[in-house]
Amino acid sequence: MLKRRFPSVTLLAALLLTLASPGLGTAGLQAWRIDSGTVTVSLSPSRLDNLGMSLVNPRHTADVSLDRAVQLLLEPPIHSFTVVASPDLDFVTDNGAFDHFVEGTVAVAVSGGLAFRTEHLRTGRALDPLFLYDFSVEIDPSQERLVLGLRGQDPSLAIPLQVKNSDLHFHAKSGVLSVRMGDLFLSEAWAERLGQPSLAGRLLGAFDLRLSGTMLRGAEIIEREPDLGRSGERAFLDVSVDEVYGLTSFGHEGTYPNGES
């Protein structure tokens, strides 16, 4: 995966002044604002049970909007929540390809959520429940490998769940910025809280984030033909498999270049 490079503070300030100007003289750049969005989560009851966790009192605030074919790949129940739109989520694209959030690292506010009963795996002692109501999804795009953190309202508690094995994808025609079908894992801090540090990184389910945006201003997006390999066919990574310990029903969707199925 290519590592994104971000401008210095001085360069970023100059970029924002350019974006704010009526002419938007910087070639190829577009400024976008998030209008709405959804978070969809699929959690495996059996995997939760093996970790001393059980899901209780989900508070859904959105309908499941994933394609029917994708839903069939996920283990029910599927939970969906509404994203709270905010100017803090403004982002910039370079000829329609995601470049950076204006704020750098962002926290996507989510309405609704989940709660979990938890117990110490060694002693069976009941632990304080985990509340993920009106939670946030923390995104730092500067990471070489994108890792999202799901954080509850209590800032004193460590991030309990993380999302890995996906990336930010932007589809310029629809204006949708997404993290599609990421894998949802137990964090190291929460594994220690459950009394089993070795369970850190244990797969719990699947995570999907869709943010719908509107272009505020910017240069016209020029569609480009994909690069061709020496064989004359499209040259891009088709399938990558890493650390496979078993197969289950979770799946990913999307093809080159913009995640269209």
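Above is the first protein from milestone M3; the second protein from the same milestone is given next.
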Amino acid sequence: MKKLPIVLVLLLTFLLVGCGKEEESIPLDGLTRQINILNEDVSSDIAVLGDDSLLDSRLRRRKIFSIDETSLPISREYGYQALVILDLDSTIVLTDKDFDFLEDYIINKDKDVIYIGTQYLDRFSEMFKIEMREEDCGIGMYGCFPDDMSVTGVGICSGVWTTDDISRMEDNLSVLSEAVVSELSSNATGDSYDY
């Protein structure tokens, strides 16, 4: 019976001392921080054409099957809108009408497009008058003021995805997701992040 008060005192002391401590936060890794920016901090609408299973499952996005005003509506509801085209296997078919829509989407609607693949790199390169490097296998395009980045009014991030990345992806499937999420979060906030 004498042990009960001692146990109660110890238990109360532990609870009182423990309750005063704030929970230590675990620092987020770069990819998680960037996903949180897109999912929570910035009101984002990320559309994906192609195999979206290659992207981190935590990234909120919607899969689309065509490029048009129905699948890519412009909305003031979102602070950031982007299209990711994942064409690593060169199976996506883009028409002249699709390219006209994408040009308008980027330049006039000020939306972002990331293309990962090689099938249409030459077409994007011609459209926006950019030089691609031999190792480039992807490109990021975003609307900007012509005086800022280019005569065409399109900011370009070539080298979003390269032949070296394809080699690294064989060992680590998350490399593609990290590259895409990094580009998206950087564009959404205007900052650049390392992952």
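Note on the second protein: The beta strands are 44-50, 62-64, 80-87, 112-117, 138-143, 154-158.
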